[in-house]
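Materials and Methods. Structural model of Dihydropyrimidinase. The 467-residue sequence of Dihydropyrimidinase from Actinoplanes sandaracinus was retrieved and submitted for structure prediction as follows.
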Amino acid sequence: MTAKLIKGGTVVGPTGAVKSDVLIDGETIAAIFAPGKSPHIDDVIDATGKYVIPGAVDAHTHMELPFGGTHASDTFDTGTRAAAIGGTTTIIDFAVQRTGEVVQDGLAAWHGKAEGNCHIDYAFHMILGGVDDESLKAMDQLVASEGISSFKLFMAYPGVFYSDDGQILRAMQKARDNGAMIMMHAENGPAIDVLVKQALERGETDPVHHGLTRPQELEAEATSRAIWLASVAADCPLYIVHLSASKALEQVRNARDLGKNVFAETCPQYLYLTLEDQLGAPGFEGAKWVCSTPLRSKHETHRADLWQGLRTNDLSVVSTDHCPFCFKDQKELGRGDFSRIPNGIGSVEHRMDLLYQGVVDGKLSLSRWVETIATTPARMFGLYPRKGIIAPGSDADIVLYDPAGRTRISVETHHMNMDHSAWEGWEIDGKVDTVLSRGEVIAANGEYTGRAGRGRYLKRGLSDYLI
Ligand code: URP
Ligand code: ZN
Ligand code: ZN
Ligand code: ZN
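The predicted structure was written out as tokens:
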């Protein structure tokens, strides 16, 4: 047996923090001991003064996504390596069925990009770019045989990924029957397109107009519509992705108060960054922060409301929506026309640190930090208890987090394949110290020792988070 003992740390999980030693046998966790009760093991990792937490699960990434006339700049190799260094040991990426394409062909293409290239374990959701008889049938096959139990639909991006209400209803009915989760990009795309056209006609071309033409009402309206469509589909489970706005959160809260299987995630950018300070940066600089849903105004209550939503579980998950584009040659496609700026921000490396700052600032408890970045995403998407928890039998995906450390984020030091950082110069109280993936130390003391190809595809089950 290749045993390791993580000794002297404080194990943090969704139910609290307890000083314990963690025994690893090969790729899994064998046992948890009270301090002083663990057996003698030669291979000891000293965790004194550290939090010992489950490796984080990022349930929303877009490696190599073809989008906006280009493709996301992180490959599965560069993106999962950066994730690992930041304490994320599982990603769920979005495989894509483009309009007119066979769903299984889109999935095969995604396996082709990921296989042999990932540094950490990975799973897929499926984006349905076209809902018809064929793709509805494919949903059953993906759930039954491919380990894919969640499907993303878009109420935005007409002509690209957009589904109309009838298509959405049909996909929801199918998901209700086969146990899958519908994930929704909830923005009213046709209405946004009108506002975008009018803005461009007025000569409003700077990046800030990306946000101004996507008012929160159009996120709230789409969120509400998705919730009621899910109700009509006999309460199909619904997960709102990248929720950014107070009024949209209100819709989710109302649905949850009615006891519905409606869930939502937010992302670090909506918790910290704003329309004025980042998207509204002078000249074309704001293009770095063009993403959809957009950053919201600092003069409204969005950020405080989102932190509150995380505390009350009206927001259950923090994902990154990692969709990086370089400034040069990619974001610059939209110089002179904000609607052509590729949408997306890259943060896959920084989620654990950015959310830990919320703990330091008194906005989130320690256990809620772990729950929103690891345990709940694993439960929500059928990876639990293999991932997302430190417990006997679970994969030994473990992070030692140093609360006395400090992290400075910069393009000079990050590992994502991006020529800028949305978080340039940010300083965090806390630091990822050691990362284990299935029992193997892949990052320690600032050094990365993992390798491409060691990550495995995870077939997921159904959500165990439903009411
Ligand atoms: O701006 C974003 N969010 N880009 C990625 C695609 C999506 O809608 O999630
Ligand atoms: Zn390319
Ligand atoms: Zn989206
Ligand atoms: Zn996304």
